[in-house]
Design brief:
Number of domains: 1
CATH architecture: 3-Layer(aba) Sandwich
Radius of gyration: 17 Å
CATH class: Alpha Beta
Strand content: 15-25%
Shape: globular
CATH topology: Aminopeptidase
CATH superfamily: Zn peptidases
Number of strands: 5
Helix content: 40-55%
């Protein structure tokens, strides 16, 4: 499913639109990108994210090996490596916000961080932004349990792995429009990372053409 997601994104990026009842001929540029997708890279990212034991949104932020803090630090560092390999065009940052207590799954105000990598488009007249995302937080059945092993391999380390692999491949290329790669936080508590990024996109006037 994740491989299909990557392939579909490449197709949409190249076409710039959805086709209805049309045969899509194989595009050499798309084939080149798809052929760079590495199953071993995808597996490696998933295993690394699982190794943080839990990525619960309210888990440890100080440890370098365990918890949500270690996970986001690692994701950001990987994005930065992709940026260097791609000629330092990739803009990597935290999208940081304070989430108030909600009386349900957030017991006290907490600082949360989406990890964002933006590849600016080469055409100044093309304001489109194409975005892909996955959420890097995880949980066990008890949503308030912040300590037990919560691997979250399929929910959603696999999604983050797909996003990171697309970023690794595509940050070495040039595209007319801007590409945005995001590892979201706080999904398990109520889509808080996505909600905050949506507010930012609205405030900054992002022209999100595809998500």
């Amino acid at each position: 499913m994740k491989y299909f997601t990557i392939t579909a994104f490449f197709v949409l990026l190249a076409s710039g639109k959805l086709f209805a009842q049309q045969t899509i001929s194989q595009d050499p540029a798309i084939s080149t990108l798809v052929n760079e997708v590495s199953a071993s890279n995808l597996e490696s990212v998933i295993k690394k994210l699982v190794s943080f034991q839990t990525r619960h949104t309210l888990s440890d932020t100080l440890s370098k090996t365990t918890g949500i803090g270690a996970a986001r630090t690692w994701i950001k560092s990987e994005f930065e490596k992709y940026g260097v390999a791609g000629g330092n065009r990739l803009q990597v940052s935290y999208d940081t916000f304070t989430q108030p207590a909600d009386g349900r799954r957030i017991t006290a105000p907490v600082v949360l961080k989406n990890v964002v990598a933006i590849l600016p488009g080469t055409d100044p007249n093309d304001k489109r932004m194409l975005m892909v995302s996955g959420h890097y937080d995880s949980r066990v059945t008890d949503v308030m349990n912040i300590k037990d092993f919560a691997p979250g391999a399929n929910d959603d380390a696999s999604g983050v792995a797909a996003v990171m692999e697309m970023c690794r491949i595509m940050s070495k290329q040039k595209f007319n429009c801007t590409l945005v790669f995001v590892a979201m936080v706080g999904e398990e508590q109520g889509l808080y990372g996505a909600t905050n990024l949506a507010k930012r996109a609205k405030e900054e006037g992002w022209n999100v053409h595809l998500l």
